[in-house]
Design goal:
Number of helices: 5
Strand content: under 5%
Number of strands: 0
Shape: globular
Order of helices and strands: HHHHH
Helix content: 55-70%
Structural class: mainly alpha
Radius of gyration: 17 Å
Length: 110
């Protein structure tokens, strides 16, 4: 992180934790620069989604969108994501609701 205030705890599924543990055990490295993490995420992203750019921040945004889609209150999202403004969480909630409305309308078209 750039500073202590920028440090974030990242909730991870068990499988992801296991994969990360295996990776670091194999590499014998603990610390990584932001550039190294960026390169790893882009490399894996190209394998999984070759026609869509994937960045470390896109993983964070996806996690926030998933929390909003599951109905998590914006105030809880704010705490988990470490946002200083509640409006940031509200923007994910609003975007998720708009996307769901759009999907419902598209389902109705026959």
């Amino acid at each position: 992180p750039k500073n202590k205030a920028a440090a974030r705890e990242i909730p991870l599924m068990f499988e992801v934790k296991r994969l990360l543990y295996d990776y670091f055990r194999e590499k014998k490295e603990i610390g990584m620069s932001r550039v190294t993490i960026f390169r790893i995420v882009k490399k894996v992203g190209r394998r999984l989604r070759p026609f869509k750019k994937v960045y470390p921040h896109s993983l964070r945004a996806t996690f926030a969108s998933m929390m909003a889609a599951q109905g998590m209150p914006a105030s809880d999202m704010q705490v988990i994501m470490g946002w200083s403004k509640l409006e940031t969480a509200n923007s994910y909630v609003k975007a998720t609701k708009a996307l769901e409305t759009f999907r419902e309308k598209m389902r109705d078209i026959k």
